[in-house]
Amino acid sequence: MDVRYANHPEEIKRYNTDELREKFLVEKLFEPGHVHLTYTHVDRMIFGGATPTTQELTIKLDKQLGVDYFLERRELGIINIGAAGYVVLDGEKYEMNQYDGLYVGRGTKEVWFGSEHPAQPAKFYLLSSPAHHTYPTVKIAKKDIKPLELGETATLNERKIHQYIHPNVCESCQLQMGLTMLQPGSVWNTMPAHTHDRRSEVYLYFDMEEDTRAFHFMGEPQETRHLILKNEQAVISPSWSIHCGTATSNYTFIWGMCGENITYTDMDHIPMDQLR
Fold first, then answer.
1. Count of CB atoms within 10 A of residue 60's CB?
2. Could you tell me if 61 and 70 are in contact, meaning their C-beta atoms sit under 8 angstroms apart?
3. Which domain holds residue 249?
4. pLDDT for 127-142, tens place per residue?
């Protein structure tokens, strides 16, 4: 498990491109037969990918977290962005088609990931945050989600927001998670930009062609920076940072956050004339 430490906003003003990528960009999440995880001290989130092939995979993080098992004091969100697979939680199997999600409550001792067809593996995106209470595990099928339809073609941001782990769908301690699909011809995921000083976030960009690139904008509103990502890469977004992006074609991204509250609309919008 890779570990990333928190950074003061004044620090990144001095970072060059390589330093910025080293601190905030995660380039490898999905590798056949492996689990790749990143622990960020920004709100102590753990995120990454599990890509099972011929054998089931699990997460073993006890010594690193000072607990007896991974979810002893944590909750977990899962979205499958690959082919059909399944998740086994303490012996109970959940079928997971592409874009299906799962909320896993604190106290679940065994978590196993499998693919229906090893040659076409599932790709489980994982996001975990500390939890103070145990809420029920909930399967969230994409077909059952009524998306929020926002934006318009004229502003290049026509998109559908699918809320997975959200008060409208299931209970959680502090974890929120969803999937946003940009429509063909649209490339902006959020503009005007905003911050939410009470929550931190992680973005996973995917469903991109080999040559497609996403430009993720971050930093304080008056001191912005950017990262260039390719398919299936993720960005850590601290609470003080804007987090918006555009790309050379349409794409899909998963947003996930945790912090002081679970109010999705609790954000501070940045007027366009304040961005620099």
1. 11
2. yes
3. 2-274
4. 999 999 999 999 999 9
